[in-house]
What we know:
alpha+beta; Neutral/alkaline non-lysosomal ceramidase, N-terminal; NEUT/ALK_ceramidase_N
Amino acid sequence: MKKNRTIDRRKFIQSLSTSAFGLASVRVFPSEKTAWNRGENAFGLSGKSNTSHDAGWQIGIGKAVITPTNGVWLAGYGRKRVADGKIHDLWAKVIALKDAVGRRVVLVTTDHMGMSKTIYERLFRVVQQEFGLARSEFMLAFSHNHCGPCLEDDLVDYYPSDEKQRAQVIEYTAWMEKKVVAAVAEALANWQDCALLHGEGTCSFAVNRRDNKEAEVPEMLAKGLPLKGAVDHYVPVLAAKAPGGHYLAVLFGYACHPTTLDFTTWCGDYPGFAQINLEENYPGTAAMFFNACGGDQNPLPRRKVELCKKYGEMLSTAVEEVLRTNMQSISPVLSPAFSYVDLAYEELVDLEKLKPIASGSRPLQARWANRMIKKIEAGEKFSNRYPFPVQAWKMGKELLFIGMGGEAVVDYSLRFKQEFPQRTWVCGYANYMAAYIPSRRVWEEGGYEGGPHLDEYGHPAWRWSGDIEDRIAGAVAKTVKQTQDTG
């Protein structure tokens, strides 16, 4: 019975990802004309739009270069990777939104691989104290870029770090946090009137890495053979348009690992190139990226800079096509909510099972096991629950933006788009990096994203409990209801 239920669920998810829900088309105006000739209003919106939505929003924008200047290593891949230069700078970017009654939310996006709970909590305490932001009003989103720097308390056992490198990581993290806070202050000090618009396009380079062998993908693509597995090729686009008709900011997302590159040069991977393209093509616009539920998605083929540029161009082109369509305006009402849900572990570690791992041949697991042993011998009692962050921002009646901590697989995005009536977007790398977040389907299938991998993320366990999707879905539904109750 369990096997049949898993197969049925898998077919359901794949039918969503390959149907109109997963490959929505984008309609583009046949020609570019001036806003005046098109009969648009002061915000550059068509007269067919609901003009009551066109006013009432304000936006603040902040930016900071966060490219390391010390000797911190590059994050990802579990190796010592010393930087040898940069292709382009890394950024922290901020948009603050204010609705018609003055309610605010702040989104920070960064070109980092992961964000630890330590950093998130530290940043939240500062923005709460300095700017009066509630937890529900602040979201920290990281692109999961593997050509960015290591950060404090993120994947602490993953790298073969020595004391000097750990000091460099702490030094960079403190410097970066000050940059982020300054960018938030900049955004909150410089409000501009705007219309807020939303739309969606598609982009096709993300491949389900669980169901397609990387070495076989180039030949399959060359032959036009269909790839397997669930995908989410949506490109969500949120745009802020000034009264003069130009774009102040463009926030866009995509569900895919930024792992095109595997070298020792600072770079924002395909999201970095996409943002650069948009800011060059729309001067004066702040382009910002969020990673959707791409935990089981890779850009394939990969490992070449020209492919990274190609994917960045594909993504920015998809965004520009959306910007040229008749995007839908959003009424100026914000309703944010935040909650934690306790995720259960399948089994906690103990000394008996840790000791052979601590002296084993796998360096990462040995470092983790030895750290866990020290904690146990020091008298620490591990909790069998982990606090997982869930966030929701309802924007008017038109858009629901959900934030989830960790590397959620694509099933979550496909599910929530079906469960909620308004247009729904899911940011899968929000606030801090919990670990891979499997759906029930992926958990039952096992493999890297669904199996015993929590040791890599520093948890005192190997695997989540099998009810992880039910727990998260219940928390998301509860959090979304809170936005409806307060909106």
